[in-house]
């Protein structure tokens, strides 16, 4: 009864807020065009929770490049024009985070993804500095060489595992890829790695997979916080919060181990611990920030790169002619030499195939939402403070006005007339502006080395008689459905 009373009161409050805000702001502000929706829920009932990127793209196509709608308690603006996204996200007023209940309620403004203001600026500067020190750079040199060797260690492990596991009926590469890529991030973030059957590591991988499923932009809890009083969503919330707290206890164990051993490692954990206990101004280096930043760096670094690589392997298996073209290019230019980062400028068609994978299967198809920190404008439209602003990647990456035959896999669209790599203006895999992906160059290094070494070693195909599903499942990221692939060693 108590839960029902709280739910009823919450519904009443949300309804009154909705009526007051919506009616008054419609009169005083020139909001972007869009659907009206219904009280309390806004347009949420019409958004397909399994394919939110498609539902929102349909709205963008109907109402234009700036579309306004209400999603539960959150006023939302969809941006589907790439130039407008660049201009908008270059402004400080759009450098906040969207007021989503799960991210704000669970993360409490800590970490990097959900942080705002001076905390976000300080921590982004810290992360960017660490990445540069670790070797995330386009320019050759000793630091980049060390980073390349760290990446190649897990690439080689992954290649050997897939060779041993592969069979005529194929193997699902997810577990092997997740272990190897995850261990690369473990090395960079925590300064340690796990064996594949380690129970702590198995639990951390499971928790990450569950989080990706539950924390999506279309999740009702993000926009209707009173849903947490319903049993189904209450259980989800408890699972996520309990998982976060257990993860933080594991992180503290790793921190304690580091402090006892005092080994010098190129890891975020070591760098943060030094900053937190140093003599410099360390107001943003707190214990809660420590836990949340480690989680953000591991989760974001692992999930997006893992998902892109899985899609790349699927496209190679379903487009054998494209795969052979890449392998022929590699054989002609490199011979038997295994590809390295120095070969990125040579292997143009491989880079184009990776880019086409990122375009056609945007890992974050609705983009990472921003939030407005003040009343501002987009073009001729007013945007209230606290608005969620969504850079709709799926809409931009599949817009026929920018891409000919946009739903087909055509890597050559990223190759210019002179044979060099081109980046069309509608291509925004790492977003844009002040909050664009801070580790974009590291992601490019990892994707290139994994993709190049896999194609150098294997012919990738579907098992005989098997049709591979390319639709995917959408949570935070758009991930492939479970599948099996055959990894045949090349002669």
Automatic annotation (TrEMBL):
Keyword entries, A-Z: Endoplasmic reticulum, Heme, Iron, Membrane, Metal-binding, Microsome, Monooxygenase, Oxidoreductase
Signal peptide: none
Mode of membrane association: Peripheral membrane protein
Keyword Membrane listed: yes
Cofactor: heme
Top-rank taxon, per record: Eukaryota
GO MF annotation, one: iron ion binding
InterPro entries, sorted: Cyt_P450, Cyt_P450_E_grp-I, Cyt_P450_sf, Cytochrome_P450_fam2
Cellular component GO terms held in the UniProt record: endoplasmic reticulum membrane
Residues bound to heme: 437
Pfam families (UniProt xref): p450
Function as written in the Swiss-Prot or TrEMBL entry: May be involved in the metabolism of insect hormones and in the breakdown of synthetic insecticides.
Protein name: Cytochrome P450 306a1
